Amino acid sequence: MTEETLTEILPPVRHWPMLRLTGVAFDPLLTELMREGPVTRVQLPDGEGWAWLVTRYEDVRMVADDPRFSRAAVRDRPVTRLAAHSVPARGAVGFLDPPDHTRLRRSVAPAFTSEGVERLRDRARGMLEELVDELLQDGPPADLTATVLTPFPTAVICELMGAPAADHHVLHTWSRLILSSAHGADVGAKARAEMGAYFAALIRRRDGSGGEDVCSLLGAAVGRGEVTVEEAVGLAVLLQTGGEAVTHNSGQLFYILLTRPDLAGRLRAEPEIRPQAVDELLRYIPHRNAVGLSRIATQDVGVRGVRIRAGDAVYVSYLAANRDPDVFPYPETIDFSRTPNPHVSFGSGPHRCPAEMLTRLVSQLLVDTLLERLPGLRLAVDAEKVPFRRGTPTRGPETLPVTW
Length: 404
Fold this sequence. Notes:
The protein is α+β, with helices and mostly antiparallel strands. The chain has helices at 3-8, 28-36, 57-65, 100-112, 114-118, 121-138, 144-149, 151-161, 168-179, 185-206, 214-223, 229-242, 244-259, 261-269, 274-284, 318-321, 356-373, and strands at 13-15, 39-43, 51-54, 69-70, 142-143, 295-297, 301-303, 306-308, 313-316, 378-379, 401-403. It is globular, with a radius of gyration of 21 Å.
């Protein structure tokens, strides 16, 4: 392909709204974009202009890993984006590049290692057992989202952060307001400011505590002069709000199991396959609407024969990458025996989600406990009547009415 072709023939720009998707239906426009080409152009509801969209697995990983695609360069740019509340704040950790991004993540890394997360297992199991005890005591019907799937992941995330139990509810409320566009940008900004002030105070109190939770680690890093208070607060807010995805993923995971009793039945009969099954469900779940955060090309880069120019905005779709048939044969099938399963549900590259181990722990504990303690668990309404969240980047059921 000649340079003239690369510069003169561009794919059409497709408008990509935040669709009102329910259940685990895959975004039909994303399906079309995947068929149209490995590299297409899109315009999202907010911001200005258009951006490249990369959908093939290998290309997605390349862009996410390649330092020529910068998150920091997005700041102060009116990039086309999903919603106004996704505009990066000054110093936002998600819009830093290495080495600054690496330095900040290093400060909390011990909390997110397999050993760090494993320290939470017994406490997390105890919290879940208490919630299920209350669920059984109150009896059916019940909203599984309100009784278990929201309070349990929230409590585990807050435990990892080092937030006292009395503050779990307000942290969850702030997180939902920050992430939702339904209440307006001012409400989200106010919630972000309040959460930031909360974590600033908590991090200062934890300086020198020697604790292993995130706020203690951040307090120690601030005390050593490795990160600023502003950076520590920004990272704490990002991690806390990012934990909302665990709640939404848990809702989608159980929506699948409750609408596919064959899958739930197999997991009850074969407990040894549950970790691998959870991983396959995490690959399959369409965990977000449209795309996440953009990058800017800092120099001309070729992707699949397409020249992405310096200054162009670029999005990758991890959802599309997880359905790439060259990597995942029969990608529309939930296959508990799928191996290998190199899905990118947690992202790739420097910005890969640090809570990967935590998400697996929460998901596996939920599957083990709910399937074993509620063998008759089933939906209390028709599947199509389960309401799903609106106006949020991540997808999941607003309520999950169940009986047993």
